[in-house]
Structure formats: structure tokens, C-alpha cells
Design goal:
The protein has 550 residues and is α+β, with helices and mostly antiparallel strands. 31% of the residues lie in helices and 16% in strands. Among the domains are: 176 residues, no CATH class; 59 residues, no CATH class. A hairpin with a 7-residue loop joins strand 4 and strand 5.
Length: 550
């Protein structure tokens, strides 16, 4: 396709009637189908006519030039460390904005909610940028040390004790920051705001950063991903084929060669941010929106049967995007195929599309503008003949390149920072933080000059160390010992350990409630504490009783 023709196509779009979506049996996206409430302007994808025949045509696909593909030149150098690359995605300006929202939300809560007498918010002080980075490091570290509850990471029980958490941040401080974590200006939602407004700043920052950091190679794919969430939520989806079946659905665009995530769209029903194309339906509009910045360079796109349709293939072909994917046989404009026996295939053509039906264990329908009707060898061997099994080349190519998004989910499954919370937007934020971590890992692998390529787990551990080294010392804030009913120091009963448990003054000349007196419902304060147990106690008789009687 000539450049003048491409420009004419891109400039020739017109505004037409309201958007009408195509329903799908695999995913509950019925909220897309509401033309009466849709306010965004639709774009015509053009009218297409299809005349299917068994006569093959010559496929003419222009070659792809990968000269400009790869890491953005202004983004990173070949000597960048793990922390430098991660800070490109989560820069200090971005974290500073989150810190501002978090501190504002704490002030809003204090003004509008009655705080309990012994609430952790009584000891709140404003969060800083170094402290927020330390908070992120602790969240990442928790994925490598699984516990039943958050509090157990700070346990003094010898079987659970891990001193690193207490040295980075106190338990109460971590839980308070997690509870006050916020990503927008606090207050009731207005009519103009959508359900995504609570998390819109991290979402928009991530999408823009992903686009600016990497230019994809020839092959890209689009697939669904899901952020697990089983709470009450209007946009919660059910995807039976995913490992986490309930949650927040994302439409993800991924580069096949590098595994880098290029863009994503959060499904929000009728409020989903899409450029609606009149003849493509909901699924086609998702694809067209994700690919808006990648037209005109002859890339190859791999999609599954929720997106594929003859109209979408023509629409993308006119914009120099070649497609390959499975397709539902009942899609509009799809041809009618014959009944086939196992191993048989049938191909029908409507320039520039080839539609194929191949009978294996079940019927498989493919739609492609890349391949011919040819068979190719696979890696599996036929036990009867000893020769490689044969499959259509379009299916072999599809199986090879379609799994990039699932591979990202698999890599994150064992190291994701998602915390158990009733706030859905916090889960989505931590998933976005995981995506930043994963993309920075892929970038780091590309920038490595030698053959050394660390594993994702090793990269995450090194990043945690570098975050602590740079921001850990800046975020240290001395806190008073806790008088809550936390897990107690079991070594206080050991005969040889008594020499370490001696009375000392409470820091800053403060007074705290005696722990034993509080158990007896006596209101008594003291200036003394056990420095080892970090428990406030009356010198006489509570100090002796606490260390001798269980």
C-alpha cells in the first residue's frame, strides 16, 4: 500500500451512528451494548463486501523494517542498573503525586470519621517519597516470604521471625500506609467521574510510560488478563478459562519477541475508554484503540476468537497491519464450510483474507491475511510413521506467537505484590506496580551487553536491595513500642536470657499504658519498658510478673 493511499484512508473516516456491540459467550461484556447512554463519538470503519470462493490468490505482504524498533533511545543507556530502569517507570514525580494523594486522604479521614481512642492513625505523620519507595520494597519482599497475615512478617516468634521488616518499617506504620494509600483527590465521586476515577492517575501514567519506553518489533498480540478480585464490584468479570476466574479484566497489547507490555485497557463496561468504530463492534474497537499508534509499518497481529472478524481483518489490512487468529464460525460475514473428517481442511478466500477450517480433535476456524493454505511440520512426532505431525502453517504460527500475555501472567504469578484488600483499586494499583517491575526486567535483559541474563526472581531481589540502599536510610523514623496485643517475645521465659530483659526509659520521656495492667482493665501509665520485648511495664510488680509467668 502506498503512503498516499494510507493517508487517504486515515483521513477519510467519518462520524456515524451510535455504537452497537457484538455480544460474546466467553466474556460478560454486555455493558458495551448501550447505544442510548454512549456519549463518545463513533467512527465509521467503512463498508466491506465479501465474496468467498475456493480460488486462491497471491498474498502480497510488504516486509517489516525493524530499524526503529526496540528501546527508546532517550530512555536508557547500556550501563543502567536495575534501579535506574525501574525508576524510569516509577519515577519520583509519579511517586510524589501518590504521596500527596495519600496524605490528603489521611486528613480527609480524620476530619470525616470518628477515630477510635487507640487507633493507629493517632500516631500518623506525613508520608515522604523515600518512605513510599521503602513501602514498595517491603511489598515486593513480602512476596518472597509468604505469611498467613501481614502482622506475622513482624512476628518475634523464632519460627516466624525475620528482622529485615522491622529494620525497614514498623508494623503499625506499614499497615497505616497501606490503609491510607490513595490515588486521587479524596471526596465523593461526582457525576462526571467514572468508576475508574479512583485509579485513573496510575493507569494513565503506566499506559503513557509503556508507549514511550519501547517501540515493538514485527509481531504483537492482544489478549485478556485478569486482576483477581472476588469482592463486590460493578466491573468484575468472570473468565472461566483463566486461572483466576473472577476479577478486573484488562485488554493487553504485548510485544511477542521481548515480552514487553505496550499498552492495556481496563474494562469498565459502558465507561470503557475506547475509540468506537461503527462496524467493528466492541471487540474490534478494543483492537483498533490499542493499535492506533502502530499503523502503517506492516506489523503482524495475533488475536483470539473474541476479537477476530472479517471486517476487522480488512480494517487493519488497509492500515498495514496483518492479522492471524482463531475465529468463531458464526461471526458476521464468515463463509459456510463443509463437514470434514479428522485431518481434512478447507480454505476459502476473499481478497485479502483466507478463512480456513481444519478438523483435528474438534473443528478449528482460522482467519489470516499472512499465510497460505499449506501444511507444516510440528515438534510432535507421529508414533505410527516416526515423522513429525503436520498442521496448517497458520495454526503453527498462531500457537508460537499468541502466548506472550499468558507468559507475562505466569511470570508474575509467583511474585505479584497484590495484597488481600476490600479496596479493588488498591489491587489494581499493585498489579500495575508488578507490570512496571516486569517491563523493567525485560528492558534490563535487552541492555545487558554480555550473555548474563538474570532470572526474574533474581532481578526483583537485586532491585529490592537497591531500593533499600537508596531510600531506606532516608525513611527511618523512630517509633514508640507498641502496647497492642501483638505476638509476644517468647524468649523472655528462658532462664539464660533474663540478663537482657532489663527496665529502660520509654523514648522521648513519654508515658504508655502498662501491658499487664491493661489486661486487668486498669488505667495505669508508666515511663518504663523492656527494651528487648518493646513492651511498656510498671517496674513493680508488672515487670517481674511479665517475665516469669505466662
Amino acid at each position: 500500500m502506498e503512503n498516499d493511499d494510507l493517508i487517504a484512508i486515515l483521513e477519510g473516516v467519518e462520524n456515524v451512528e451510535q455504537f452497537i456491540a457484538i455480544s460474546d459467550e466467553d466474556s460478560d461484556l454486555s455493558d458495551f451494548e448501550d447505544p442510548t447512554t454512549e456519549e463518545s463519538q463513533n467512527i465509521s470503519a467503512g463498508e466491506y463486501s465479501f465474496q468467498w470462493s475456493s480460488e486462491a490468490f497471491e498474498i502480497k505482504n510488504e516486509p517489516f523494517d525493524d530499524f526503529f524498533s526496540g528501546i527508546s533511545p532517550s530512555m536508557i543507556s547500556s550501563v543502567s542498573s536495575e534501579l535506574d530502569i525501574f525508576l524510569h517507570y516509577c519515577n519520583e514525580a509519579y511517586v510524589e503525586k501518590i504521596v500527596e494523594f495519600t496524605n490528603s486522604y489521611q486528613q480527609y479521614v480524620v476530619r470525616h470519621i470518628d477515630i477510635k481512642l487507640h487507633s493507629r492513625l493517632k500516631n500518623w505523620y506525613p508520608v515522604t517519597v523515600p518512605e513510599m519507595y521503602t513501602f514498595f520494597a517491603v511489598c515486593m519482599l513480602m512476596t518472597r516470604n509468604s505469611r498467613n497475615t501481614i502482622e506475622e512478617h513482624w512476628s518475634t516468634n523464632p519460627y516466624l521471625h525475620s528482622g529485615i521488616y522491622g529494620s525497614l518499617m514498623s508494623r503499625n506504620r506499614f499497615c497505616t500506609i497501606l490503609g491510607m494509600l490513595h490515588f486521587c483527590q479524596p471526596g465523593p465521586r461526582t457525576e462526571e467521574e467514572t468508576i475508574l476515577s479512583k485509579i485513573i492517575y496510575p493507569v494513565n501514567h503506566a499506559r503513557q510510560t509503556f508507549k514511550n519506553s519501547f517501540i515493538p518489533y514485527e509481531k504483537i498480540c492482544i489478549d485478556e488478563s485478569i486482576v483477581p478480585f472476588k469482592g463486590r464490584l460493578l466491573i468484575k468479570q468472570y473468565l472461566p478459562k483463566k486461572r483466576n476466574r473472577f476479577g478486573i479484566e484488562l485488554f493487553v497489547l504485548c510485544d511477542v519477541l521481548s515480552g514487553i507490555i505496550l499498552d492495556f485497557i481496563v474494562y469498565c463496561g459502558k465507561d470503557t475508554e475506547l475509540t468506537h468504530f461503527d462496524n467493528l463492534g466492541a471487540s474490534g474497537s478494543v483492537v483498533a484503540t490499542l493499535l492506533e499508534e502502530y499503523y502503517g509499518v506492516n506489523r503482524k497481529l495475533y488475536i483470539d476468537n473474541w476479537y477476530s472478524s472479517p471486517k476487522l481483518s480488512i480494517f487493519l489490512k488497509q492500515r498495514s497491519i496483518h492479522t492471524c487468529g482463531t475465529v468463531k464460525p458464526n461471526r458476521s460475514e464468515m463463509p459456510k464450510f463443509k463437514n470434514l473428517k479428522k485431518g481434512d481442511r478447507e480454505a476459502l478466500y476473499s481478497d485479502p483474507i483466507m478463512a480456513m477450517k481444519w478438523r483435528d480433535k474438534k473443528n478449528i476456524h482460522m482467519l489470516t491475511t499472512i499465510h497460505k493454505d499449506e501444511m507444516g511440520p510440528t515438534e510432535k512426532m507421529d508414533l505410527m510413521t516416526g515423522l513429525p505431525k503436520l498442521k496448517p502453517e497458520c495454526i503453527i504460527d498462531y500457537n508460537k506467537n499468541m502466548g506472550a500475555v499468558d507468559a507475562c501472567d505466569m511470570m508474575l504469578s509467583g511474585l505479584q505484590c497484590i495484597r488481600k484488600t476490600i479496596k479493588w483499586y488498591k489491587k489494581l494499583f499493585f498489579h500495575i506496580l508488578d507490570l512496571h517491575l516486569l517491563n523493567s526486567y525485560h528492558i534490563f535483559k535487552i541492555t545487558c551487553k554480555d550473555d548474563f541474563s538474570p532470572s526474574f526472581r533474581k532481578y526483583q531481589l537485586v532491585l529490592i536491595e537497591q531500593l533499600v540502599q537508596k531510600y531506606g536510610e532516608q525513611s527511618v523514623h523512630k517509633t514508640l513500642p507498641s502496647t497492642s496485643r501483638a505476638l509476644e517475645q517468647p524468649t523472655r521465659f528462658l532462664p539464660g536470657d533474663g540478663a537482657r530483659h532489663m527496665p529502660s526509659y520509654v523514648p522521648k520521656q513519654k508515658k504508655l499504658r502498662c501491658k499487664l495492667c491493661a489486661r486487668s482493665k486498669k488505667r495505669r501509665t508508666t515511663r518504663y519498658m523492656c527494651a528487648v520485648c518493646t513492651v511498656a511495664l510498671c517496674v513493680i510488680p508488672c515487670f517481674q510478673l511479665y517475665h516469669k509467668k505466662k
